[in-house]
């Protein structure tokens, strides 16, 4: 891939971010919702820390990653970039979200840097994260409990991740009671080829049911580049956008 000029890249990202913010503004207006109630989470997976630094300079403070090894390195690299740039803010000004599937043996590493994890779908993972987050809190590696969003399966396909509706009650209760964790809400991805409207409508119903037992679990992570408008209509509080901000392929050289 040809080398890309840093100034040109910064201009590209700034333009893309402005377009996505305007799009999200329109989606909230159309849905009659307060824009402040819907977070735009830039997804920086597969892209370099320098792109996250550009987004940081444009006001973004939270980022989504999906692979532990890549994210752990990027967290450290962005902290170095911000320090060298003299932003006046430390690495603790940034909040990182783990949005991809997570193996239990990676829980300890993720608990050191993640503000939230959006993809919890098993009791065993809850238990692993509880141990990891509790240890990180005790050792001063994190300032607050790890926010947990339970991933809901909208098609029952275990290969795509997510817990099915009848299993959610037990998982939510286990998370609520777990040391070091905070039950924040739900996350879901529409099934491949599905109508996003119907998928997000179903998710909204599941979320309403959850809130009856867990009224503080108000977060709903739903919607990406192709379907954020539908997600906002059905109550999403966090849209995860990567392609519309950074492009469809990784930028590997500058």
From TrEMBL:
Keyword Iron carried by entry: no
List each coiled-coil range. Answer: none
Q: Which GO terms describe its molecular function?
A: pyridoxal phosphate binding
Looking at the record's lineage, which domain of life comes first?
Bacteria
Q: What Pfam families does this protein's entry cite? A: Ala_racemase_N
PROSITE patterns in alphabetical order: UPF0001 (PS01211)
Boundaries of every Alanine racemase N-terminal domain copy: 38-250
Q: Which co-factor is required?
A: pyridoxal 5'-phosphate
Extract the InterPro entries matched here.
Answer: Ala_racemase_N (IPR001608), PLP-binding_barrel (IPR029066), PyrdxlP_homeostasis (IPR011078)
Q: What are the record keywords, sorted?
A: Pyridoxal phosphate
For whether the record's keyword set contains DNA damage, the answer is no
Residues the record lists as N6-(pyridoxal phosphate)lysine modifications: 45
**Known role:** Pyridoxal 5'-phosphate (PLP)-binding protein, which is involved in PLP homeostasis.
The similarity annotation says: Belongs to the pyridoxal phosphate-binding protein YggS/PROSC family.
Q: Which NCBIfam families match?
A: YggS family pyridoxal phosphate-dependent enzyme
Protein name, as recorded: Pyridoxal phosphate homeostasis protein
């Amino acid at each position: 891939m040809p080398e890309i000029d840093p100034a040109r890249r910064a201009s590209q990202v700034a333009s893309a971010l402005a377009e996505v913010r305007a799009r999200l503004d329109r989606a909230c207006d159309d849905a009659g919702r307060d824009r402040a109630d819907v977070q735009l989470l830039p997804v920086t997976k597969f892209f370099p820390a320098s792109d996250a630094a550009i987004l940081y300079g444009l006001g973004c403070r939270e980022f989504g990653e999906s692979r532990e090894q890549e994210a752990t390195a990027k967290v450290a690299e962005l902290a170095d970039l911000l320090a060298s740039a003299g932003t006046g803010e430390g690495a603790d000004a940034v909040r990182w979200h783990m949005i991809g599937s997570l193996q239990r043996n990676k829980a300890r590493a993720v608990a050191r840097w993640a503000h939230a994890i959006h993809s919890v779908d098993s009791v065993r993972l809850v238990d692993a994260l509880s141990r990891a987050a509790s240890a990180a809190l005790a050792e001063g590696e994190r300032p607050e409990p790890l926010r947990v969003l339970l991933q809901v399966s909208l098609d029952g396909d275990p290969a795509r991740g997510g817990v099915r509706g009848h299993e959610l009650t037990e998982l939510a209760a286990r998370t609520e009671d777990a040391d070091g964790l905070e039950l924040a809400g739900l996350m879901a991805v529409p099934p491949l080829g599905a109508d996003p409207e119907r998928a997000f409508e179903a998710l909204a119903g599941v979320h309403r049911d959850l809130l009856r037992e867990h009224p503080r679990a108000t977060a709903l992570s739903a919607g990406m580049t192709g379907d954020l408008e539908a997600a906002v209509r059905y109550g999403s509080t966090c849209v995860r956008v990567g392609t519309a901000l950074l492009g469809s392929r990784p930028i590997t050289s500058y």
